[in-house]
Hints:
This protein is α+β, with helices and mostly antiparallel strands. It has helices spanning 2-26, 388-400, 415-443, 453-470, 473-487, 496-500, 507-519, 528-535, and strands spanning 30-34, 38-40, 45-51, 68-82, 85-98, 102-106, 110-111, 114-115, 119-124, 136-142, 146-148, 153-161, 165-171, 175-177, 180-184, 189-195, 198-211, 215-219, 223-230, 233-241, 245-250, 266-267, 269-276, 283-284, 288-298, 316-320, 324-330, 333-346, 350-354, 357-363, 368-374, 377-382. Helices cover 22% and strands 39% of the residues. Strand 4 and strand 5 (85-98) form a beta hairpin.
Amino acid sequence: MVATNNRLLRNATLVLIAFVATMSTASAAVRAQVDRPSVDLNESFMLEIIVDTNTDSEPDLTVLEDEFYVGQVSQLSNTSIYNGEIRRSRTWTIALMPKKTGEQEIPPISVGNEKSAPVKITVKEPAKEPPGEADVFITSEIDQAEAYVQAQILYRIKVYRAVATRQPALREPTISGAEVLVELAGDEKSYEAILNGKAYNVVERVIALYPQQSGEIAISPALFEARVLRDGRITGRKVFQSDEHTVKVLPIPAPPDEFQDAVWLPARDVQLSEEWSRDPERINAGEPVTRRVTISALGQIETQIPAIAPLSVDGLNVYEDKPELSRRVEAGGIRGIRKDQYAVIGVNAGAIELPELEVPWWDIDAGTWRVARLPARTINVKAVDEPVIAEDVVEATTKSGAAETAAPQLMPDGFWLRVSQLLAAVWLLTVFAWWWSSRDQNRAPRKPEPPPVYKRQAKFVKAARKAALAGDGAAVRSALIEWGRLQWPDDAPRSVGELAERVSAPLSDELRKLSMASYGPGGGEWDGAALAKSIRSIAVARKDSRLDAEDPLPPLMPPAA
């Protein structure tokens, strides 16, 4: 009777836990985020409301009307499967334009019974005046004029158009000086802006720059080429250019005293978290459990995030798996994400303390060292030979007073305990043998992974510069054509002349001189030093860059007459 009652109590507890879990997932969290943390007055931006379930409720947008003009609203439902679990979400995207300057707060948005957290946004006075050709112009800006080695610099290009254009082409700037890694920080954005009473469609492109050495970076003007449509007539091709910029790159500062071996990680924000495949508070000895430790760094690419070494703890066997690298784009730039995964097997029963994890990083906004921490935790390893049901039977027979006479003893004392111990030992040996054999199989045929494309390209760029300085035209051609094969694997250039058509000035001009000197009828001269200087930063000519003339969003307010 006591055993039956205990089983009923356990079943009721499991049902209650499942009910609570179901109720917790039913109340979906509501998140709000903006595509840009800072905008100019009379400039629109995008607000996203995200619900982690496919709900029928709609967000209450009336709370936005006091401080913002509310434009077009679109929505998207998404379904994904993660580790066999179906996840659904719903996202609303709202175009907003602020009504006043200063620090603004987007109030909580209600979706059903849940509310989002407020979101802060900075609204500045309009700083852009239409220069020259007022109907079309282009601007550029950098988020910081002084940065550290490998720290992110956001370079922002904006094309303003108050009239329709044809055959548009946006050419990114040439970057010279210190060696720089260039990454596109998200897709192009399109929104509305009103300057001096005139409505503009704005297309914005953000580029993340990561200097690889100290010194100075020179950024040439970005160019926008198009034919302008006015009064039903189309003009010839016009070229508009932005400002040029200079960035000072500082060397890596000394590590903090308490972390002399700290890996250099410059970022705006670093988050450290963990996940377990099962509850680590109670695991069985010999049974593997997976621990995932995630580091995310805002303002850094995923390959720059350092790995966390596997823990060495008495009573645990820890086996490292291949990390997962990814990224996402936020308002502050690229957030690199690294997930290190470990198989953890408890060897000895009892409570085992996992030490605190610490990752030092450099705060590029505050200019100081900080430490991201994952608190220490205790895991309880349960021996596999704990006879839970046997305890219930012994308790029942003891209360009846007939423990020895209630049933005949079919097996000697300790028989099942020894069987359990034997089976556990065999199981552990099987797991170890499987791991050992799979490790040998994986190691034998495995070939080293090739380095990333940008590292191989950097090798050819350095070889081309060295050959140019030495006056070796053949070596320059060979190195640059190999670089082109990596850049366009499906349509590789076959000569430096063809490569010159795919890159921007000044490199394109120097390559044409080299081609004429090598293959032209009259020969010619080429300047090795000038070519080496132009190779330091290769900018691909984006012939396929498209800036649609049609506005993707209707005007949030009619343009002034």
